[in-house]
């Protein structure tokens, strides 16, 4: 199908929940980080080596970068989700299955946005806790976040394979 029709694909309930949770978490990240900045010392740890030893220091104001990076990632995903006709699809895309492919693609982006926001919120929380000199939380979540994203792509990809 050379021409991809522009269809109105309404948001599902899970997409609405993801959007609300993402917005609340992003606002919370900014509020938490800004509040914490004023409790941090002027110089904070900004990097750890593989052994968990601090080997980089910087200004406390660098901690505001993480929420901004998240917004820079989130906004393009928001627009990408809105225009599923711009996504990449297999050759078997046809007039009969285009809606199912668009729905599947929008749900994939919704889950990825949700997972990115939660992962960044955790990383931000971890960064702030270390900057405040509190006990370092475990970094196992990095592996968990990566596995979650990979599993999401696999699961939704398998669902896409079932679309006729």
Polypeptide structure, described:
Keywords: Membrane, Transmembrane, Transmembrane helix. This is DUF1648 domain-containing protein. InterPro entries: DUF1648. The protein has 164 residues and is mostly helical. It has one domain (13-161). The protein is 60% helix and 7% strand. The protein contains 4 helices and 2 strands. The chain has helices spanning 13-37, 65-82, 98-131, 140-161, and strands at 43-48, 54-59. It has a two-stranded antiparallel sheet. A hairpin with a 5-residue loop joins strand 1 (43-48) and strand 2. Helix 1 packs antiparallel against helix 2 (65-82), helix 2 packs antiparallel against helix 3 (98-131) and helix 3 (98-131) packs antiparallel against helix 4 (140-161). The radius of gyration is 19 Å and the shape is elongated. The mean pLDDT is 86.
Topology readout:
Blueprint: H1 13-37, E1 43-48, E2 54-59, H2 65-82, H3 98-131, H4 140-161
Antiparallel strand pairs: 1-2
Helix pairs in contact: 1-2, 1-3, 2-3, 3-4
Structural class, judged by helices and strands?
Answer: mainly alpha
Query: Could you tell me the mean pLDDT?
Result: 86
Determine the N-to-C terminus distance: 14 Å
Q: Give me the strand/helix succession.
A: HEEHHH
List keywords for this structure.
164 residues; two-stranded antiparallel ribbon; 2 strands; 7% strand
Question: Can I get a quick summary?
Answer:
With 164 residues, the chain is mostly helical. Helix content is 60%, strand content 7%.
